[in-house]
Amino acid sequence: MDELAVQHYLDQVPVEIREAVMELDTPQKWAIYIALAVDGDKYFNQLKKQFRANPNTIDKALKSLVEGGLVAKKVKQLADTGDTNKTYYTTTRLGEKLLAGLYDAALPPLAAHPPAPAAPARSRSRAIRVGET
After folding, report:
1. pLDDT confidence band for 111 (50 / 70 / 90)
2. Which domains does the chain have, with CATH numbers?
3. Cα–Cα distances in angstroms (integers) from residue 28 to residues 35, 41, 54, 64, 88, in the given order
């Protein structure tokens, strides 16, 4: 393929969107992403138990979703940074909007059609992203 032509079209969509979509490359990642979007914040052990999964499998999926910008790893207090028992995962604004946008694009707007699942309202002002100080 002509790399200039490829780059021309790639430049039409922000890299953050392309990376987010590329990270959803397995059913397991989709399931974790949807669980966080629909159910809300979850700790690592909650996800591990919910999916009855090997910790390495959950860890790899979460790292991928975080790298893609769909999910954020957070703590409630700055003092909890680094404490894995107090670190939780939540969908990002991009993650929430992507899922809602996919629903809107894929499903016709019918009165009988239920609205896309919305992430529970939560205060982002008190949460601190891991790595932000």
Report:
1. low
2. 13-107+116-129 (1.10.10.10)
3. 11, 17, 12, 11, 18
